[in-house]
Amino acid sequence: MKILLRKAGQEKRQFLIDELLKFGIYKKNNKHLYEWNLCELEKEYHYIVTNDLAEKRKNNLVMG
């Protein structure tokens, strides 16, 4: 059971890192994404999605 939970956590962490990389986020406060814990990754992802920053960034990249 512990192995399954650990694997699920690792997969979620990797998903969040991949999504943040797509948004152009590689590091923050001199800390690379791979150094962040799951909670930090979730908070950053949630902040970007709820504030629609991902769409705005995507539009800026396309237009500019």
TrEMBL record:
It holds the Pfam family Fur_reg_FbpA. InterPro entries: Fur_reg_FbpA (IPR025072). It comes from the Bacteria. This is Fur-regulated basic protein FbpA. It comes from Bacillus salipaludis.
